[in-house]
Structure formats: C-alpha cells, structure tokens
Q: What sequence folds into this?
C-alpha cells in the first residue's frame, strides 16, 4: 500500500456513560479544517454500547460520516477491546489523519493503536496544521520541558496520529441542518477480548471542579504569598461567579488542589476572563492560558513576562489590588 491510498480525517469520539466528551467536539472542528485543506472527508468513530443515537449530534458538529462500533462488550472502557475496535476501523478506513483527545482514555488507547497499525504518534499536541506543499500534518507540541515548541511530522507512515489536549481547539458551531452518513461497523470482537473484570465503578465526585469549563478564572501565583491570602481570590471569585485556579508554584505549595493547576502539566483553559494574580508568566504556565479571551494580570514587577500576554496589566501588590477590586465590584 502506498501513502496515497490513505484518505480523509478520522476523529475518535470519546464517550463516557453515553456522554460525548467536549474534547471530541473540539477535534471535530479542527478535523473539519484539516479535511477541507486536504480536500477530503471528515469521519468520526464512536465506540461503546447503545451509542448509535449519539451519531446525529456528531454530524451536526461537522462529521460527514459516523462509524459506530456498538457492542455490549464495549459498555465500559476496557483497553483491549477498545484498542481492537479502533484498530479494526483504522485498518478498514485507511484514514490519512487520526485525531484523539489527550484524556486518560485517549492516552491509553492511542499509543497501542499506533503500534498495531505500525505508525507514529505525536502526543499532547497544542496546534495542528497542514503543510500546503507536502500536505503533511504539522503536529506541534511543547518539548524539552516546555522550553521549545516542536513541530513534528510523520513522513513515512500512515495514518498520522495525534492526541490533542482538551480545551486547546475551539468548539465548532452546531448546525442542525447538516446531514451525513451513519455506518455500523462490526469490529469482530469476541468475549475473550475482555481480559479484565470490572468489580466496581466509583463515580466521579460531582462537586469536583473542572476549570476547563469555567468562563471566568481567578488564578493565583506564588506572589499571593500564603495560603491564608487565597481568601482574597475566593471572595473575588464569589462576586464574579468564577472559579479559582493557580500556577504550579501554588499547587506545589499546597495552597490549591492539583486539579486546579493551569499550564503544561496542568489544564489548558480558555475562559472569557482570566485573572493572573502574582504569576510571573513562565512559558509552561502561559501555554495553558494564553488563548483566554481577556487576560488581566496583576504583578508588582512591571517587567514580569505575564504582561506580554495580558490585555490589561495592573502593576501593584495583589494583596491590596484584589480586595479593592472586590469592594468596587460589590458596589456595582
Ligand atoms: P513565580 O515564577 O515565583 O512568580 C511569582 C510572581 O509574583 C513574580 O512575577 C513576582 O513579581 C510576583 N509577585 C510577588 N509578590 C507579589 C505581590 N505581592 N503582588 C503582585 N505580584 C507579586 N507552571 C505552571 O504554572 N503550570 C504548569 O503546568 C507547569 N508545568 C511545568 C512543567 C515543567 C516541565 C517545568 C520545568 C515547569 C513547569 N511549571 C509549570 C513551572 C513554571 O516554570 C514556573 O516555575 C511557575 O509557573 C511559576 O509560578 P508563579 O508564576 O506562580 O511563581
């Protein structure tokens, strides 16, 4: 088979409890852009049990074809049967590009699938594009501890597989007038493919915050000074109905939980408004928040790097500026 035999873009749709994960919708948006540049079709593959009714939604978000692998065996995510199912779809479809969310499931699935279809994988990408001349996928991700952004290509094998972090790509517009093809796929799964037994499923604590979904984030840096001073941020967050997040320094100091860390080794966020309070603006932090709609930075050092990405900069002491701001907002 030659590389030219591979056609189209395939997005792996992650569902949990029959709920499509946001990152998969974001990837449909990016996938469509790539498919258009290649002049090819965008397909989605959804794997699970009783999930066919989700296919139409994927068409509304841009998929022209939806491949459904529906089997009782696939009710819960188990590495082996899901790997077998996705591998079978890729071997049958021969897509040129495969996109997977860099979630815990995507990170488990994609290296195994890549190995089985004998191609490479570029993990944790923050940007994807098509080289206009060679038509190759340009997969960009932070490398060397976030000190450089590396653009990686997969010149000799197909498909070109990439995982992308949630929150990095924009969610596409939903258009309910879109139509597409829904295809049932038999992956040839056998009961013996299930090599583990699920004894108990512990439901995620619903109260757990997901800072990736927050519209407004008040983010703390080491400049906050102490865990006690975090109270100023909680007060502002309450007034503005936002969530509190932080830099790695704050998480390492134990002032916030790890799930609230923004940055390369934390979450990628894109809120409407991001307050960076006492954050220096290290590249590993900025990589996780620079796509925010509006960035307001407060820092006592006028030369802090965070001011380079901020839309509004306030030079001052956070422990004075934040309470003043909260007071003024309360008056509105
Ligand atoms: P600092 O860099 O110490 O900055 C504190 C800032 O507060 C300074 O700019 C200072 O001027 C200001 N300040 C001090 N006092 C006040 C005051 N009273 N009022 C106003 N301003 C004040 N970091 C992340 O955030 N997220 C990541 O995911 C992440 N991943 C990493 C991955 C790797 C592989 C590596 C090597 C590093 C990573 N880091 C990450 C760490 C990153 O390099 C920085 O060390 C970290 O972001 C610094 O956090 P900070 O800005 O809160 O603290």
A:
């Amino acid at each position: 088979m030659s590389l030219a035999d591979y056609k189209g873009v395939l997005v792996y749709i992650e569902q949990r409890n029959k709920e499509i994960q946001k990152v998969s919708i974001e990837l449909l948006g990016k996938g469509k852009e790539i498919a258009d540049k290649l002049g090819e079709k965008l397909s989605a593959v959804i794997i699970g049990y009783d999930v066919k009714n989700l296919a139409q939604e994927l068409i509304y978000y841009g998929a022209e074809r939806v491949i459904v692998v529906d089997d009782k065996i696939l009710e819960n995510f188990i590495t082996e049967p899901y790997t077998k199912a996705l591998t079978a779809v890729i071997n049958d479809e021969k897509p040129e590009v495969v996109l997977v969310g860099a979630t815990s499931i995507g990170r488990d699935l994609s290296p195994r699938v890549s190995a089985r279809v004998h191609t490479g994988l570029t993990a944790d990408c923050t940007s994807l594009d098509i080289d206009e001349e060679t038509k190759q996928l340009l997969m960009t991700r932070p490398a060397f501890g976030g000190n450089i952004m590396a653009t990686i290509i997969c010149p000799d094998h197909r498909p070109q597989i990439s995982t992308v972090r949630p929150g990095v790509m924009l969610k596409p517009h939903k258009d309910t007038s879109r139509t597409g093809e829904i295809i049932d796929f038999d992956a040839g799964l056998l009961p013996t493919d299930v090599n583990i037994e699920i004894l108990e499923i512990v439901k995620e604590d619903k109260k757990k915050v997901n800072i990736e979904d927050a519209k407004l984030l008040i983010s703390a840096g080491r400049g906050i000074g102490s865990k006690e001073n975090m109270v100023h941020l909680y007060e502002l967050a309450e007034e503005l109905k936002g969530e509190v997040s932080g830099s790695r320094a704050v998480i390492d100091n134990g002032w916030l939980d790890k799930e609230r860390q923004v940055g390369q080794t934390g979450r990628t966020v894109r809120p409407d408004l991001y307050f960076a309070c006492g954050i220096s603006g290290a590249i590993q932090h900025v990589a996780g928040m620079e796509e925010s709609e509006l960035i307001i930075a407060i820092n006592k050092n006028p030369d802090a790097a965070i001011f380079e990405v901020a839309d509004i900069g306030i030079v001052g002491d956070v422990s004075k500026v934040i309470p003043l701001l909260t007071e003024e907002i309360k008056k509105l």
The radius of gyration is 22 Å. The pocket of flavin-adenine dinucleotide is lined by residues 145-146, 221-223, 225, 247-250, 261-266, 278-280, 282, 284-285, 288, 298-301, 304, 317-319 (CB under 6 Å).
